Amino acid sequence: MKVAVVGAGPAGVRAVERLVRAGLRPMWFEEGPASGGRIYQRPPTGFSRDHRALYGFEARRARALHDVADRLRFACDWRPETLVWNIRRTEPVLDTLTRGTDRRSETFDAVLLCTGAMDRVIPVPGWTLPGVTTMGGAQVALKTQGVAIGSRVAFVGTGPLLWLVAFQYAKAGAEVAAVVDTTPFATKLRPGLLWNLATFLKGLYYVGWLRARGVPVFEGAMPRAIEGDGAVRALRIEGHTIACDAVAMGWGLKPEAQLADLAGLPFRFDAVQHNWVPGQDAAGRTARPGVYLAGDGGGIAGAEVAELAGARAALALLADHGVFVDPLETSVLDRQLWRQAQFRGALEAAFPFPAHLAAEMEDATILCRCESITAGALRAAAAPEMNRGKAFTRIGMGRCQGRVCGPAAAEVLAASLGCAVQDVGRLRGQAPVKPIPVALA
Amino acid sequence: MKADVLILGGGGAGCSAALHLAQRGLRVVLLERGLVGSQASGVNHGGVRQQGRHPAELPIAIRARRMWAQMAALIGTDAEFEATGHLKLARNEAEEAELLRWNAMAAEYGLHPRMIGRNAIRADYAYFSDKVVAGSLLEEDGSANPRLLAPALAAAARAAGAILLEGHAVTGIAPGFVVEAKGQSFTAPVLLNTGGFWGGQVAAQFGEPVPITALNPNMMVTEPLPVFCTHNLGVVGGDIYLRQISRGNIIFGGGRGESDPAVPVSRPLPVPSFNAMQRAIEILPQLAGAMVIRSWTGIDGGMPDALPVMGPSRTTPGLFHAFGFSGHGFMLGPAVGAVLAELVVDGHSETPLEGFDIGRFARQDALADDTWKTRLE
Amino acid sequence: MKRLIDQDRPGLTLFVDGQALAAKQGDTVLTAILTGGLGHLRQSEFGDGARAGFCLMGACQDCWIVVEGRGTQRACTTLAEPDMQVRRR
Predict the structure, then answer these.
(1) Which of A32, A172, A246, A414 is deepest in the core (most CB within 10 A)?
(2) pLDDT averages per 10-residue partition of chain C, 89 residues
């Protein structure tokens, strides 16, 4: 049985672990050079920080995951530096590209997509300036390169990641200009205390630590613009202008679901996390036989859940293909996944995506940074849904294929039509999921 | 709902017919399964070209070209049309002879492309590889943005009083004509079949089936590159076509994707994509440094002689067909609509349509050796 | 972009638009260019100015540079190598 796993983050690693344990030798594709995904991304060779320094509270999990993954490589058909840029509509085939030069098509009996997530952002005037990055990008820079995105960094957005990254920067010796959380404290309090005590307390610790060091903290404040000429000079929020030379922005995460889309899976709008997600059952099965999902690529639930979901989906895949699977193991995972799911809604409620901030962006704001298309152009095009909006304005036609601007563009379009954001739909995926060289032929 | 004319299918031809009929005071209802321009009209290369066509298509292509010059006045936008010239390339002597043969024929229709020989190609177009030995340039040809045409025609048709209903898949057609869509009945004495690939199914229902196949143009685009080539490029044989838009992206296509018209769904395919990429680099070597950022396709209707079905039904009075444009109908859409309006209101059209007669498929000798058959493209 | 911690690594020299740039083993090309004071990675094709990447994780495609012998690459996922020739678009 030919099984493929796409992604070597937490979900992919635990999935491959289960598959190998069952005697399989899966094809394991990872776009980067090593396992770990984003949260447990590893620096290139030559860096000397240990796991505690790199991953803080998550050090033990990260170490365990890396150790398992490092051993699993030899039990698999391990394909690092390999982009899976297409999955065929009806044929069970993946189209892959290794190191930008070697193309191979691989048939599969089953494939498990563990493609992870990226930051969700809201364009503000000046967000394309050198010095502006995503929240996750700011963290990756510190973790894997030992650099801060600037000498004096402002952080804006919401979610646990905002506080974690600002804390990590300050702890590493960076100058934190300010932390701006668009969620008011009061909004976080109730769901935090009732459902997510650990996360809430960690957050309080980070905020307290930053405040104690004189870092300006703003809650319930909206960013208005990033100022600068050729580089960031300041972040302007309501009532304050914060001098800085870099801004990290992020409002939670959104799934990287392009392969799920090309696989033909139906999507639904998850109102709790405010994201379009591919359809799957609790075990990771999808509407297409042979295609499974696990981890943030199927809906944002975090790294801990990703490990559980990767294992669970591998078991579902095995069971569906006639391999014996211990019912006790699956029921334990099911229970753990169910318990984790109860907290998810509260976490989202504690750090809501400020859709109005996106919907109300000024006409002159660049919305699609690949093609340099403004919010005003999208409003003026009077399109009834997102793909028409793309056809009329070119929003989403650029290199990133709408990864960055998609969510904000939907808010702008829906607000201009006076309808709910899910009613304008989502950008339809097209191959290649990331650009490939013309010279590849 | 009662109308004077019912139109099935909201591509360029159908929307143009709705506009022209509404302008002549008729009550028009157009039924479109999805959004207007979703299929062939919206996914093609965007070529606005007379060069390279089968002689049977030249009168309507010439008429369409005249309309494109006035498109802004007709529908309020030029759909980014630019007369950048269509340069058809020869990659060997046989292909060069083909260009000359076509040009001699086209002169009789008043078209005078300029042949560019080996030395001039080298001198004036340094970006071509040595594989390109000659070219024929028709300067009045060019390209437009296919995504914009049908929606703009539809908006103009609505402004002229036509009713265009999107999201209205046709569920039944009865003689008379009575058409069911979304639980509603629509009746009219005249029915226009501008259903693209699905036009074949409509024709079959009226006892005149045609051998239509789904044709999915395999399209790709690069990132924006510094502008170096302004012509719309084609080759003899039509296996690759390219154009660089003013924003810098190079759009190119060739070969066929796959589709399931019953859904409908369509996808480009890797093998034709790689073939097209290779052929593109063979013509423009500097494309080797570019990236493919997106691919797409759609569902067009392909006829075995690569000519559309256009004209009155052979079985049913009041029924008129215009479908099966075989990959080169985009430019013609506005003119097809004008022609259909003439057939309906005046009983005849100034544009010759004999070559498109649906009856040709009923005759044994209809598809004999045709020296002008447009291959692939 | 500012070097902060874990910077005790062997140096290397790469070339950006023909100019020598000192960097360190383990740097990505993005890190090398932006910590090296060059300010940006490319110019937007549409006149809105300089770009210096955004997501830093290979998703946004805003950090494209050209590496001689390899063609277009993302600066954020490409490791700097000795004598690498990088051209900015």
Answers:
(1) A246
(2) 97 98 98 97 97 98 97 98 97
Which residue in A60, A20, A110, A84 sits closest to A303, CA to CA? A60
| Among A89, A384, A438, beta carbon nearest to B222 | A438
Whether this prediction's pTM lies above 0.80 is answered by: yes
Q: Are A98 and A104 in contact (CB under 8 A)?
A: yes
Given an 8 Å threshold on Cβ–Cβ distance, is B223 in contact with A95? no
Q: List chain B residues with CB under 8 Å of C64.
A: 223
Q: Which pLDDT does position A193 carry in this prediction?
A: 67
Cα–Cα distance for residue pair A249/B258, rounded to 1 Å: 41
Tokens standing for residue A163? 């506080």
Q: Is the pLDDT of residue A204 over 90?
A: no
Binary contact (A147, C40; C-beta < 8 A): no
Q: Do A88 and B267 touch (CB under 8 A)?
A: yes
Half-sphere exposure of B320 (CA within 13 A, CB side): 28
The residue count of chain B comes to 377
What six digits make up the tokens of A423?
């009613």
State whether residue A288 is helix, strand or coil.
coil
| A36, A62 Cβ separation under 8 angstroms | yes
Residue B139: exposed, middle, or buried by beta-carbon count in 10 A (0-12, 13-18, 19+)?
Answer: middle
B91: alpha, beta or left? (left if phi > 0; alpha if psi -120 to 50): alpha
Pick B289's closest partner by Cβ from C45, C46, C71. Answer: C71
Tokens matching residue C47: 């006149």
Task: State the pLDDT confidence band at A353, using cuts at 50, 70 and 90.
Answer: very high
* Cis peptide bond upstream of A354, omega within 30: no
DSSP B350-361: SS--GGG-GGGG
Of A371, A392, A438, the CB nearest to B277: A438
Cα A235 to Cα A158, B224, B305: the distances in Å are 16, 31, 64
Give yes or no for a contact between C65 and C41, defined as CB atoms under 8 angstroms apart.
yes
| A34-48 pLDDT per residue, tens | 999 999 999 999 999
Q: DSSP 3-state assignment of A108?
A: coil
* Closest CA of chain C from B148, distance in Å: 21
- Which of A134, A148, A371 comes nearest C4 by C-beta? A148
Look at C66 and B290 and tell me if their CB atoms are within 8 Å: no
Q: What is the pLDDT of residues B314-345, one digit of tens each?
A: 999 999 999 999 999 999 999 999 999 999 99
Judged by a CB distance cut-off of 8 A, whether residue B294 touches chain C is no
What is the spatial distance between Cα B75 and Cα B151, in angstroms, rounded to a whole number?
A: 10
pLDDT digits (tens, 9 = 90+) for B277-322: 999 999 999 999 999 999 999 999 999 999 999 999 999 999 999 9
How far away is chain B from the Cα of C72, in angstroms, using its nearest Cα? 7
**Given the structure tokens 């209205």, which residue do they identify?**
B168
B129-164: per-residue pLDDT in tens? Answer: 999 999 999 999 999 999 999 999 999 999 999 999
Q: Tell if the CB–CB gap between C73 and A404 is shorter than 8 Å.
A: no
